[in-house]
Amino acid sequence: MAPVTDTHWAGDDRARRRCERMKGKAAGEYGQEADRLRERADFLDVYDYFLRLAEEPFSAAALSQRVGGPLAGLFCLQAPLEIFLALGLHPVRLCAGSQIAQQAAASSLPVLMCPMLKSFVGHTLLYENDFRSFQTVVLPTTCDWVVKIPEIMGEDLSSLHYMELPHYRDTEKARIAWREEVFSLVAALEEKTEKKLTASNLRTAVETLTEVWGIFGALLNLRRKGVLSGIWYLLLANTFLLDRLPVWTDHLRRVLQTLQDRPAAPVPAGIFMAGSPIVFPNFKMLEIIEQAGMAAIADDLCTSERIFPGGVAYRDTSRDGLLRSLAERYHTACICPTFIDNDRRVNNIFLAAETAPIRGVIYHLLKGCHPYDIEAITVERRLRESGLKFIKIETDYGREDSQNIATRLEAFRQTLE
Description:
Largest sheet: 4 strands, parallel
Number of strands: 8
Strand order of the largest sheet: 2-1-3-4
């Protein structure tokens, strides 16, 4: 298979016109979803800032200008964000939820490829967000699709940094291996930026993100109580790092101030959302869940609650001491399905069910997302043994299956009575 970048619009006027048409359609797709959210009965003015960030198709050039500095592209959550911030880089998650963008690259990609990454590749073609737009791109080896993305795109591997994720988590050998990967990342970033990571800058970055984690923890409590809907929570999470962090955090604080004194709302049928990531503008599943009379009051999605693992516990305030603490926190807090010893994922669902009115689990599976598909077997068995209701919904970015999903979820809702 030829690299995607070698098989599209370059040098072809007709192809370039097609590209412009698809960009227009993609912009419409983003705008339509934003308009749907603005029309919701629970829309508040404080959400509009986040909608304006989300409804603009991602442009690396525009984001770099907005934040006033170079970008670091990240594919997964394992690389400590504090390190990038301390070295003057603005990290941004490389994923996409556009069906139109997915179609832009579909002819050159495997049919069963992960829709989120297929959409990212198409987005790259449409908006010229290739890896040269970033000062560095970091790829933890979480799944085969992520590992092969540079090859699919025809990118120069010398401009990337791979982090080899141990497939065991709760062993000393794995912790040591991951710690070495974190220190290797620091060395690579210092070479890229021509800066030295200092304990002072790293502590400042830790304190900055600790404040963000604290605000999101308070918002999480409001979600559990039914004050903040799952859709708005996901929107806030999806826009993380799409603006200068102080500006974004200030708007996040305004959301908390607006909601914190509101009374808890009755939760019709609280559910836990598990499985594959959900990325704007593809909020289809959450919308259908609400239409079926349920409320997603908790999740373990890596584009939602898992973004915010909480503060870092440390005693050693030296540079290396902070790095060891960051490596430990990012590794042990992760419940990615790539791990072999992943009982923590199911235990996390049980814990949420003990502390919130959760009556069932909806497992969202994107077609082609093989790690989650395999792990769904274990999750379903464990949950059914515990008495928690479970349903797996396999879908993609298209809306053609919406009615079928709605029918299944309405039937699932009846089992929660």
